[in-house]
Specification:
The complex is a heterodimer of chains A (449) and B (204). Chain A is mainly alpha-helical and 449 residues long. Chain A has helices at 7-35, 42-63, 71-97, 108-118, 165-177, 183-201, 203-212, 221-226, 228-258, 260-270, 285-298, 322-349, 378-386, 397-409, 422-443, and strands at 124-130, 137-139, 147-153. Chain A contains 15 helices and 3 strands. Chain B has a single domain (5-200), classed as Deoxyuridine triphosphatase (dUTPase) (Deoxyuridine 5'-Triphosphate Nucleotidohydrolase, Chain A, Distorted Sandwich). Chain B is mostly beta strands and 204 residues long. Chain B has helices at 5-12, 116-119, 194-200; strands at 23-25, 40-51, 75-79, 86-88, 93-103, 108-114, 123-124, 129-131, 136-145, 151-153, 158-166. Chain B is built from 3 helices and 11 strands, in the order αββββββαβββββα. The chains are: A mainly alpha (449), B mainly beta (204).
Chain lengths: 449, 204
């Protein structure tokens, strides 16, 4: 039925449409300004273009509405515009900061090739810097499914030594893309079953559950699994367990790709710990570090001496917060129960090709692909760094990073460089070595002497 | 005595850490007709730097007893990855760096000159800059377009030649200046010059 608004309704609709139009024009104007920046890499420009298209579509749709339009449709559009702004404004900030010359631009190409090999050739990586210390940022948006946005802390964005933490962020992309089938769903299913099992079978958990949810006393396994009311009792624990498992998974991906250098970079940015209460989406430090060490052992990765003692346990929620403590305890136990499986899953899932793949011929994935051992050629590469030469034929980012960390932490000086400039020159050498890696990849097929 | 390219190539093959070893990374191609040359070709790197004209009234290069420290503020940097281009307009001046990272042995020195093929098209690349014994890092190039048409610069382009010669000295210490060890173009310090400062002091 056509909608015939009153004068007052029409005036209100006009106001709402004008408001939405102003918001959209403002963001489109800002996008135009950002587009005038000097982009080093195409992915950031393409992401910007996609965001522009999204807001232009909103603007086009807005143009079809007028004061006689259904107020419900006008409100829906208003909400959509706000949601799009909420989702994409942080990305616009990250895109503009990707042009800043403080960034380690030489890292981009080798990291993109790495992302192609472990996630897929469709993936687009935007490397940037972020004014938030968490310590690194991973962003994604539903409208930009194939884009991975990684933000290094701004003051460290030119520091190649923290590169291994990008492995953790690629882990988020891998988790989110789940290109290898339904493993994530299987893990989530396992977490759910473990939480329910604990409530039903563990007497202590059961009694705590029943004192918190008296109306759910005597709940059976079937009720807890299938009845919406009973499911709501443990849903929060499940969500936290899933987030914690994702964080474990991402650490494992980082260790698998970058080996010991991941642990050094993790320690560099995060030891001893943040202050205050632990975030519920992360395992507490002692559990997180324990799993990292177990994974390192499983993958044949050396653990820095005293690594477990580098970190402090963060404060758990107060015992007076009984519900939160109970649910978080459930989440922690469920996530911990999944760890061994996550370790072996990542061991199979993340294999690195050698040499680096091109977009046109991405590496095969699977068990039969040779893993690029992060310690490969370490002695030779370290010796080249020490002698002031950006190593060649390193075969990947991981061997470079592991050797560079080793040289950095050793007492060995760089030949001809005063000790106070060792770290500065080593950073330069490492970034140059990343560029040499890209040079070798691009010229490999030429077979030049 | 100038080193021929085959001698440079064989010194690049010496064991890492050997006193005579020359490091050039990525390794330049020295084969075929290039073996007979007395230089190696170097390529244009990805980093450029231009002076921030809108912020600066002038450069004061009058000598001072204290010198002028290395300062990155007057330099606006640009990163141009492989596959992209940098346009150098007529009368424009830009600092660039070689793609190659170089380590000169302690008893070799060198100098860089532009390629005549670019010079004849208006691109002046370097003014015979010296490379000191023991130098480490990427060489800073001074590019200027003195022609009438814009010039497109692509990272990876062979842009200059490095000549090397032996240095006679019993002192085997290399370059220990503060502007070695950089991969990007450097606007180096102006050294303290007490004599020039004294000469410039009073106007009679």
């Amino acid at each position: 039925m056509p909608h015939y608004p009153s004068d007052a309704e029409a005036a209100e609709t006009r106001k709402k449409l004008a408001l939405a139009a102003r918001r959209l024009d403002a963001v489109l104007e800002e996008i135009k300004r950002i587009a005038a920046s000097e982009f080093a890499y195409r992915a950031a420009e393409d992401a910007l273009d996609r965001i522009k298209n999204l807001f232009e579509e909103d603007r086009k749709f807005l143009g079809k509405l007028d004061e006689g339009s259904d107020p419900g449709a006008v409100d829906t559009l208003g909400r959509t515009v706000l949601t799009h702004l909420h989702e994409h404004l942080p990305l616009l900030g990250l895109i503009i900061r990707s042009t800043n010359v403080r960034n380690a631009f030489e890292l981009h190409a080798p990291l993109v090739r790495l992302a192609w090999s472990i996630i897929g050739p469709e993936i687009r990586v935007v490397l940037s810097s972020e004014w938030e210390y968490s310590p690194m940022i991973f962003l994604e948006a539903p409208s930009l499914r194939e884009f991975v946005f990684i933000g290094f802390p701004a003051h460290e964005s030119g520091n190649p030594f923290i590169t291994p933490l990008a492995g953790h962020e690629l882990g988020h992309a891998l988790w989110s893309h789940d290109t290898h089938g339904l493993w994530r769903a299987a893990f989530e299913d396992q977490l759910e079953r473990e939480i329910i099992r604990l409530i039903v079978e563990d007497s202590k958990t059961r009694s705590a559950f029943e004192s918190l949810y008296q109306e759910a006393a005597g709940a059976t396994l079937e009720q807890l699994s299938e009845d919406l009311f009973y499911r709501s009792t443990w849903q929060q624990a499940f969500e936290w367990a899933t987030k914690q498992s994702e964080e474990y998974f991402c650490d494992l991906v980082g260790i698998r790709i970058f080996g010991e250098s991941f642990l050094h970079a993790f320690g560099y940015l995060l030891r001893p710990s943040f202050e205050g209460e632990r975030p519920v989406e992360y395992p507490n430090n002692e559990r997180r570090i324990d799993i990292q060490v177990r994974a390192a052992e499983a993958y044949g990765v050396s653990v820095p001496h005293g690594y477990s003692t580098w970190f402090e346990k963060m404060t758990e929620p107060s015992e007076h917060e009984t519900l939160k403590t109970f649910l978080l305890g459930l989440a922690d136990r469920a996530a911990d129960g999944l760890c061994e499986e996550l370790i072996s899953h990542v061991g199979v899932l993340v294999t690195l090709p050698n040499p680096a793949p091109s977009r046109e011929s991405p590496a095969k994935r699977g068990k039969d692909v040779k893993v690029d051992q992060p310690v490969q050629n370490r002695g030779r590469i370290e010796n080249e760094f020490i002698n002031g030469a950006p190593p060649e034929h390193a075969g990947g980012l991981a061997p470079l990073l592991n050797a560079a960390w080793n040289v950095l932490l050793s007492d060995e000086p760089l030949r001809g460089i005063p000790p106070e400039r060792k770290e500065e020159v080593l950073r330069e050498l490492l970034l140059k070595a990343m560029e040499v890696l890209e040079y070798e990849t691009r010229t490999a097929s030429l077979n030049v002497a | 005595m100038l080193l021929k390219a085959d001698e440079i190539a064989s010194r690049m093959e010496l064991p890492m850490g050997a006193a005579e070893r020359i490091v050039i990374r990525p390794q330049p191609t020295i084969a075929g007709e290039k073996l007979g040359a007395a230089s190696v070709d170097l390529r244009l790197g990805c980093w450029f730097g231009q002076l921030r004209r809108s912020r600066m009234t002038h450069f004061d290069i009058a000598p001072t007893p204290e010198g002028v420290a290395r300062d990155i503020r007057p330099l606006k940097r640009h990163y141009v990855p492989f596959g992209q281009k940098f346009i150098l307009h007529p009368r424009d001046f830009v600092l660039a760096a070689t793609l190659e990272w170089i380590r000169m042995p302690a008893l070799l020195a060198g100098y860089v000159i532009g390629r005549s093929s670019w010079g004849r098209r208006g691109l002046i690349i370097e003014t015979a800059a010296g490379v000191h014994p023991g130098f480490l890092g990427c060489l800073t190039l001074e590019l200027s377009n003195v022609g009438q048409v814009p010039i497109t610069l692509s990272p990876g382009l062979e842009i200059c030649q490095l000549f090397m010669h032996r240095v006679e000295s019993k002192n085997e210490e290399g370059d220990n200046s503060t502007y070695i060890g950089y991969r990007r173009p450097v606007l180096n310090e102006i050294r303290a010059d007490a004599i020039a400062a004294a000469l410039a002091k009073d106007r009679l």
